[in-house]
Write a structure and sequence with these properties.
It is a single chain. A 6-stranded mixed β-sheet has the order 3-4-14-9-10-13, with helices on both faces. A 5-stranded parallel β-sheet has the order 8-5-6-7-15, sandwiched between helices. It is globular. Helix content is about 45%, strand content about 15%. It folds into 2 domains: about 90-115 and about 235-445, Rossmann fold; about 130-230 and about 455-485, 3-Layer(aba) Sandwich (Rossmann fold). The chain has helices spanning about 15-20, 40-45, 50-60, 70-80, 115-135, 150-155, 175-180, 200-215, 215-220, 230-235, 240-250, 265-275, 295-300, 325-330, 335-350, 355-365, 375-385, 395-405, 430-435, 450-455, 470-485; strands at about 5, 30-35, 90-95, 100-105, 140-145, 160-170, 190-195, 225, 255-260, 280-290, 300-305, 350-355, 365-370, 415-420, 460-465. The chain starts with a strand and ends with a helix. It has about 475 residues and is α/β, with parallel strands linked by helices.
Amino acid sequence: MIKYVSTRGGIPPVAFDEAVLSGFAADGGLFVPETIPKVTQAQFQSWAELSYPELAFEILSMFIDRSIIPATDLKNLLDDSYSTFDSPSVIDMVPLGEDGRTIIMELFHGPTLSFKDVAMGFLINVLDYLLEKRNQRLSIVLATTGDTGPAAAWASAGKKTIDCWPLYPRGMITEEQERQMTTLNASNVHPIGVDNCEDGADDLDFIVAKLFSDHELKEKMNLSSVNSINWCRVVVQSVHYFYGYYRAVEQVGDKINFSVPSGAFGNLFGGYLARSMGLPVNKFICANNANQALHTIFSSGVFAKKDLVQTISTAIDIVVPYNFWRFLYYCTGSDSEKLKVWQDEFKNSGKVEFDAATLTAIQNGFVSVTVSDYETSKTIKDTFETCDGYLLDPHTAVALAAANTLKNTLPKKMKVICLATAHPAKFPETTRACLEAGTEMPNQGKHVSLERASKVCQHLRICDLENLEFALIEAMTTHSKMQAD
């Protein structure tokens, strides 16, 4: 049976179900598999024509023991998770330009129009499945920069085993993203808008981590999380790299490049996981906005927390890319002691400078670019005007701008897949400003679900960051008592 360990090395190995239900490891680390399984050449060739759910079944079967989720149940969970997607193929591939070298991988055809749906629906279904078997209930607490919260809320709505508490920084996500959480009318979903978050969702992540570090409170309140700290989210995000690869290459075995708009590093870690399993990747392009924490790491080997810069690509406005610790764990040869020293140093000083050998390991197969708001806006406008009205959201534009910046440094004719992580309809004000189209929004920038959400009542709690820890515990306690009565 494949086992999961903490990146900090402070707990015994656990099975998949324990890792997923816990979220964080008890020692404050993140769960990772003891070893990353390898795809055989025969498997790799045989997967080329599989549908997305079929491919997900093959890959996830390498990480989930049959004693925990039998094959039939795993297939049913996957089918159910993707049955609500607008696209029958789950993910669509759109070539840009005459040479077809650049391909947009549309990951936003789920119920909340974000790539988060690709993994979140399955994770919530798995949690529900495991909890029902145990006759247990969980309170899921998560911070969101705009897309994770809606995806978790929609996937959780109506689940009898789950209460979902998405926290978001008020005024720092779009109204469309907010309303996807606040208009659900689900008695088990409790969005909380938090004021005075100078560092955005990073301030909320700090509170969430503090709650989870209190083991007595975590056990009493049955807390878990579905941010990309949860291993299940990350492993599912490895699947779309395989799927995109098969749909893009001329011949199975060819190498390819991926450009990924990056904030917390969860999506990029999914790519690293796919490559470690055997996917032939030439380069991963880590596309940062002005909050260039990851670009600073890849270019200089310095992991430092700086003040948040609000950009038009709000979902990747993150100054502490917490999933980078998972990547670093493998870059050090699974040296949890070294990782623990670095994490403690970062916690105390807000900065870690890696040695030359570690920097070389970090940079292996990765390049990074920081993209300004001006470049993001120009990329949206230029693409719309030159590619038959194709409309990018601000995060996909960051990935495409980064790919265009580095295109001449990559092997000629080798394709670049840019990950489209959200539908442009979620960012109407930014989109209109970039297109210089006044109040007119192209049809490509509209979606019926968001138009409906704009007209119905909202249900939410509002809190100041200073009081959030107390207020959240009070709200969860009150809700639990009401359920018991």
